[in-house]
Each structure stands twice: as structure tokens, then as C-alpha cells.
Protein 1
Amino acid sequence: MKNNKGIRKGDDPVIIKAVVWRQSALTLFLFVSGFFFAFIDYVGPVISWVCTILFGILFVLSLLDQLVQWSRLRIDENGYDLRTWFTRQQYRHEEIETFSSQTYLNRQLIILKLREQSLKKYQLQGPEIPFPCSFGRPVEDVLEQLNKSLDKTPRKIKST
């Protein structure tokens, strides 16, 4: 008999966050880049100011993301909630058939395969959706966690 149980009601949610040292390195790089352009004037004062402001804003966003942990994947009894800086993807357990991986530009990419009813609900052409949620962790580990947490109990897909 197949094991249908993934994360169920009452279970603690699983949260996959960015690897701290990688996000810290990005934040430090953005700070140094902004600081660098603040003192460089051979590219012109306008370009220097624009780059300083741009890298400064990105530094603040990255620092805030690190402090309040905005970017993350939350797996709970409702489903999967992937938040990044600019996008948010939410899928319920009953909408997902399986997770797999695919090599794209010499990197492993997690692929979410939706059920037929979900394709109609979201009006999508193909069942496979890229699900970029490894946050600097090995794709195999995240993929194992995703498949382990998928609740395959048969349920009707709710339309929103």
C-alpha cells in the first residue's frame, strides 16, 4: 500500500530558508559595490550616484530579507508557499502530482508537476512548472524533503 501521508493537520510546518553564509556574502557584496561607486568618479558623477543608490537599495533589501527572513519555502498542511523578493507561488497538496528535477543550464532545477484539474484551474498549457526553491541548498536534499512532505490523500481540488 502506498504511503499517502506527508504533512498533515497538527504537524509542525517545515520552513526552508536561504543558507546564511551565502546570503551574508550577497549582502556584503552589495554593500561593497555601493561603497565602491560612492568614491569612483571616472565613470561620471551621474552614473556613480545612480549605481551607489541602486546598490544601496539592494543592500538594504538583502539585509532586511536576512533579518526578517522574507524569502522562504513554507510547507504545512495547506500546501507549499514559496516567497521570494518579487514573486509568491502557492500550491495546495491536492494540486500537485509530484516533484522532480531537471538539468537546466548545467544546474539542477526542481520541477513541480500539477494534476490535470489544476491545469484547468490555473489555465496553464503544460503540467510542469519550475519551482526554484533550493535557496543555496543541495537540490537533492530539498527535493527529498518536498516529496516526503507531499500529502497524496485524494481530495477534490477547490477552485478559487
Note: The longest strand covers residues 96-104.
Protein 2
Amino acid sequence: MKSVARIVIVSPSEESRSKVSALLTSSGFQVFRVCASGSELRRALSESEDCVVVMMGFMPDCKPDELMWDYRESIQILLIAKQPVLDNIESPDIFRLAMPASGQAVLGAVEMLSQLHRMRLPRRTGESREIVNRAKAVLMKQKGLSEPEAHRAMQQYAMNHGMKMAEFAKRILEQSEEQA
């Protein structure tokens, strides 16, 4: 397996999902999840912070611009669609390939986005990782959240408030100690 970000494939077409999944896995990529809808995709994204999303075609319940806005710090998006769909995309951060796209073009784009994504991910030190994990445990206990839900909640809050996750984790721990 290539050492890359997790790949999430989403398409309303079962045939498209199967073809792209087979192409990527046969080329050494790790396909984390294959989704048929936007709601499935969002569930998958809540479980991982290091995804390259390969979207094929138009998804009425999952607009690429909204997805990029919601998850911009934790994903890269490759949108493979017909030119009219691509023309309606506003975010400059969404990589686009017009249909029909060759297998080599898809592989090249996924490789490039995986590398970009890997460079963009924050690297936590052992200490900050421990602080984040302790804060997640507090949220899980206080709010009844699962580990991925606690992680996602912390991630969203930190992104929305322009702070690092470890900084927000420290606040959670401080408030927890004050309440004890």
C-alpha cells in the first residue's frame, strides 16, 4: 500500500464506485470507504481526519463547495464530472477532472492530492496528542459522545474559531478541572 491519505470514493453510480475503487486499489492506494450518498460520505469523514475524497458526478445531497467549506482543513477533493457541473464549482481548492477521465489522469490527481494533503496535515507532538486525547475522553464522558464524534466536535470548534486543536483541548481540560 502507498503511504497516503485515506481515500473515500462517492458516487451515485455503483458502476463508477466499483471501477474507481478497483483502479485505485490495484495501483496501491488504500480505499477507506466507498459511499453512495452525501450522508454516507459525511459519516465516513467524521471517522477520519485525513481523507482525499473522490467525487464522481453530481450529488444532489452533497455539494462539493459546501463539503469543502465544512471540512476544508481535513480533506482534499477530486471532482470528476461533466463540464457543466465543474463550471458551477466556486471553491478554488477543489481539483476538477472533466468526464470522461482516463485512469492515468485519475491516478495522477489522487497521487498529487494525497501528497498535498499529507503536507498540510498538522503534526502533533506527543504532548499535544496526549492533551487532545484527554480532552476527547472528557467530552466522551460529559456529552456521551463516541471517540470519532468527540474528535470531530473538537476539530469543528477549533477550525471555526481559528485555533489549534491542542489549544482548544487545553481549554476543555481547564474547564473540566474547574468543575471538579
Note: The CA atoms of residues 106 and 112 lie 10 Å apart.
Protein 3
Amino acid sequence: MNKNKRGQSSLELLITLSFGLMILIPVVVFAFIQISNANSTLSTTESQQVASKLASVATSVGAQGYPAKEVVVIQIPPDVDAIYVGNLKNTVGHEIVFNVSTSAGPSFVTAYTPMNISGSLGAITGTATYLINVSAQSSCPSNNAVSCVYITEQQQ
């Protein structure tokens, strides 16, 4: 009779733990999904801040004209796949575009500047701190017919 009571209590404990796991596992999965979405949102927000900072400096340098120059320190957030200056072809334009990978697919984060800008930040890969040269040019290297603000990574 004593063996039956131990078997019954073991079975009751097993059933109780099973119900607890049935409730806990979906909660844990939901939490991981929410954390993943939060990380994507954070990368996008940080990218917007960096793009806006670069656009602001480009506007300031462009307003001063040639030979104005400024070095900017930026922190590239995770999940940034590419950075385009000017437009998506890296020619003269008015945008700084960060291509950010999110859980919903690629997201393009854009900052606008009224100045003609051009440059190349294609060598920037991975999360790190970079020094960026922002300089006013009387003739843009990618299009000699116009003046622009040229943005490149500082070589160390």
C-alpha cells in the first residue's frame, strides 16, 4: 500500500510540473521574440541618431564653405549592413542612408541635409567607433561640376 502512495505522489508531481512547463514555455518564447524586436528597434534608433549627427555636421561645414573641415567621432550600432552618402549610389545627393537589418527585413534609415554631399563610408563594417572626416570641397570628387561636402572615414 505504501508503494502505491509514493507512485501516486510522483505522478501528481509530474502532472503539476507538466502543466507548469506548458504555461512557462510559451511565455519564454514570447519574451525572446520581444527582446529581438527591441534590439532591432534600438539599432534603428541609434542609426538615426548617427545619421542625423553626420547630416548636422555636414550642414555646418557646408555653410562655412571651402576649406572648412571637421572630424567627427561616431559609434556604429549593431546590424548596420551599409552606409550610403549622397544617395544609394554614393554620388552627389542630399542624404545619409544607413541600411539596417531588422527582424522584419532591411530598413533604410535616412537623414537629409540641404547641402550637396558625397563620400564613401563603405569600408565601415561592424560595430565600432570611427573617426569621420567631413570637409567642404570647391569641386566634388565624384562630380567636378558642383561643390559639395565630402564625407570619408579617417585613415588611422
Note: The chain has one domain: 32-153.
